[in-house]
Specification:
By secondary structure, this protein is an alpha/beta fold. It has helices spanning about 50-55, 70-75, 80-85, 100-110, 165-170, 180-185, 220-230, 245-250, 255-265, 285-295, and strands at about 10-15, 30-35, 40, 60-65, 95-100, 120-125, 130-135, 135-145, 150-155, 190, 195, 210-215, 235, 270-275, 295-300, 305-310, 315. Helix 9 packs parallel to helix 10 (about 285-295).
Amino acid sequence: MTDSYGGIVIDIVFLGTGGSIPTAGRNHPSIVVRHSGWNLMLDCGEDTQRQFEMAGLGQNKKMCILISHMHGDHVLGLGGLLLRFSLLGRIKPLEIYGPPELIPYVKMNQATINLGTTFKTTVYGIKSGILFNVDNLQIRAFEVDHRGLAFGYELTYQRPTGEFNPEEAKKIGVPKGPLWGKLADGKSVKLVNGTEISPDDVTSPKPQPLKIVYTGDTRPCDTLREAANGANVLISEAMYSSEHSDLAEERGHMTAASAAQVAKSSRVGMLVVTHYSPRYEIGQSILDEAQAIFPNTILASDMMRMKLNADGKTMVSNHRTG
């Protein structure tokens, strides 16, 4: 993943896109956002460990796991993933974030591993707010409207500078070499004569930030609309079609139409609908319903990959548009 201006910044890998019950072609929910050598996992449903291996994401990368809520289809894969990492000798630490109930749950899973994990695992019970930053990408949790405590996640990448202008650097006396690299990375430098040069002196204006929003499970709610505002990509559950809107309301989910309405009102760039019920088989009715309201909608599928450039362009492979 390239951090250069206009290059690929974020790679999104959909490991599991099913809802409630895994099927032959769709596993429980799990998505990995890859950025600057990090694997940032959103939920960890059953059999995530096998999908993770098939996707070739690397067993010993810098990594954190973000759990939306404590329902089984979003957490049942944690034990297997911890076991797999231990058996394969992972040594890098792992951080896991989610509702406070996640702490004893992870401890219970760790206890089932014969010799314990081979790496340090830290679990955080969270509240809404900014969790951490990794290489110019900020992760924020926001509470949503499901059954019990549940979170969505907002991931925002802001490049520290615009495009570096070597001619301007030469013009103001910055010698070619390491100082150029520091300025391009957003760091001020001092010349031998004591003059301090700011990145703004030799770069174009910063590009717009990139934003990815993941709903977890939720009814439509204001916190989601706020988080999704202007997002490049909204990854939204769409458990039901409008035919079953009564079930969506009762069970704390969205219909495909309500997901599309959130995308439209929040002016997102692309909507990815996922986590739909097995009753809809290949999901054509879910896709059709969403596209009727928000045309730039795609249906997530297991092993689908999406690449997001610094200029906001998206490239998607292994998906259906209709």
